[in-house]
Design goal:
The complex is a heterodimer of chains A (about 300) and B (about 150). In chain A, about 30% of the residues lie in helices and about 15% in strands. Chain A is α/β, with parallel strands linked by helices and about 300 residues long. Chain A starts with 20 loop residues before the first strand and ends in a 6-residue tail after the last helix. Chain B is an alpha+beta fold and about 150 residues long. Helix content of chain B is about 35%, strand content about 20%. In chain B, strands 1-4-3-2 form a four-stranded mixed beta sheet, with helices on both faces. The chains are: A alpha/beta (about 300), B alpha+beta (about 150). At the A-B interface, α1, α2, β8, α3 and β9 of A face α1, α2, α3, α4 and β1 of B.
Chain lengths: ~300, ~150
């Protein structure tokens, strides 16, 4: 392990920890430096699997995964202190949090070039992974390895896993599997299904549903096969889908957790809410309006 | 003008503290931490509309898990269920409840090399919303044990 990357004294940590942790940079594509934070297993680091975790966006930081979701320490609301997470995933695995692509979180590009796409991102992640196993932590090269992530990780994870498997001859990695939480697997299916989800959770009533079925479903039957809410070219369909999407995403419901509170706090100039909305109903003309309304949203009462 | 339902203040504060950045070995010239980067998002080239070809490749080689908090509306469980069902994989185990701590954790359906799991009462950030069930689920998957 790279001694220079070991975290010796983490501010805000007031409880004892029984594992080592490291933070530094993995080099992928030339000039791009991806920040990683690696928390070794608190159980049996030598034999436990290595799990890579990536949050989504695209453009969102995996530090959220570490410090708010599954890491061994979670940030308290004061933004200064940390508390123990007894359900941390590093209680049974070595977990590597990677901030990708470059420019996300604490990752950077030497020339401040933040333009990228799916293929370049997966290549950069693959090269960073090689740097991890070859140069930084070769002792983990033979451990079982899993690629995991969330949200737009639904794209990051499979594309990276394919690269790892196809590159086995040149750079063997002991990939055993992959896991994705609430991932984007298909824009079309995600868009089509949310309308059904919203209706069956009572977010809108029969008036709007009837119009949706009438204008977007063939034969007047609302099924997965007969309805096209995601990219219908019929103006009337687009109009009623916009109405439905405004209810779902822009009227104060918590799109990440239907039954949870909807906190209003500063999250920087660009929020997760906007990042995730960028994946939704992209084929419709009203997509930019949906994004704009989210950006200019004032707190609801 | 804060957008709704996001809470990143604590992360922003913590990761922009000079002492924290020093502890994490972040070079001084690396810019301020933001939870999500607008430039990356806006310029990002979305080259895939579906992951179907990738899953067709992966499911013949390694194990996979797709899990969904069932009250998320960003990437809802129904869409992923439709996606997995559309792959036409052989069903290994029919849909059933799984349990954690004496409660229903959600539902699981297992296909050849792909498990489809819901986490009851969790939203988009499953490990944050339902930490205990989520740890049990991922442990079961990693170590190839029953859910």
């Amino acid at each position: 392990a790279p001694a220079a990357d070991e975290i010796k004294n983490l501010p805000g940590l007031s409880h004892d920890i029984s594992f080592k942790h490291y933070s530094g940079y993995l080099n992928g594509v030339e000039g791009k430096h991806l920040h990683y934070w690696f928390t070794e297993s608190s159980r049996d680091p030598v034999n436990d699997p290595v799990v890579l975790w990536m949050n989504g966006g695209p453009g969102c930081s995996s530090m959220e995964g570490l410090l708010a979701e599954l890491g061994p320490y979670l940030i308290n609301p004061d933004g200064k202190t940390l508390r123990k997470n007894k359900y941390a995933w590093n209680t049974m695995a070595n977990v590597l949090f990677l901030e990708a692509p470059a420019c996300v979180g604490l990752s950077y590009d030497d020339n401040d070039n933040c333009s990228t796409g799916d293929d370049e991102t997966s290549l950069g992640n693959y090269l960073a992974l090689q740097d991890f196993f070859k140069n930084k932590f070769p002792e983990y090269r033979n451990n079982s390895f899993f690629i995991t992530g969330e949200s737009y990780g639904g794209i990051y994870v499979p594309t990276l896993a394919v690269r790892v498997l196809k590159g086995q001859d040149q750079f063997p990695i002991n990939l055993q599997g992959y896991a994705i939480g609430n991932g984007l697997s298909s824009y079309e299916l995600n868009d089509d299904s949310i309308i059904f989800f919203a209706y069956y959770h009572g977010l809108f009533g029969d008036d709007l549903w009837t119009r949706l079925v009438e204008h977007c479903c063939t034969g007047g039957r609302p099924t997965r096969q007969t309805c096209n809410f995601s990219n219908s070219k019929w103006p009337m369909c687009s109009q009623v889908v916009q109405k439905a999407s405004d209810i779902i995403y822009n009227e104060g419901l918590n799109m990440y957790n239907l039954y949870d509170n909807c906190p209003h706090t500063t999250a920087g100039k660009f929020s997760r809410h906007e990042a995730d909305l960028s994946n939704i109903l992209r084929q419709h003309d009203f997509h930019s309006t949906l994004m704009l309304r989210a950006k200019n949203k004032k707190p609801v009462q | 003008l804060d957008p709704p339902c996001t809470n990143g203040t604590d992360l922003l504060m913590y990761l922009n503290t000079p002492e924290v950045r020093m502890a994490l070995h972040i070079p001084l010239d690396v810019k301020k931490f933001e939870l999500c980067n607008d430039e990356v998002n806006f310029k990002y080239q979305r080259e895939y509309s579906t992951m179907r070809p990738q899953y067709e490749f992966l499911t013949s080689r390694v194990r996979g898990l797709i899990y969904n908090g069932d009250i998320d509306m960003a990437c809802n469980f129904l869409g992923d269920e439709w996606f997995v069902e559309s792959l036409g994989l052989q069903v290994k185990e029919g849909r059933r409840m799984w349990h954690q701590g004496g409660q229903v954790g959600g539902f699981v359906k297992r296909f050849t090399n792909l498990d489809l799991v819901t986490v009851r009462g969790a939203g988009h950030m499953v490990p944050e919303d339902k930490p205990a069930p989520s740890l049990q689920m991922i442990t079961s998957f990693l170590f190839n044990k029953p859910y």
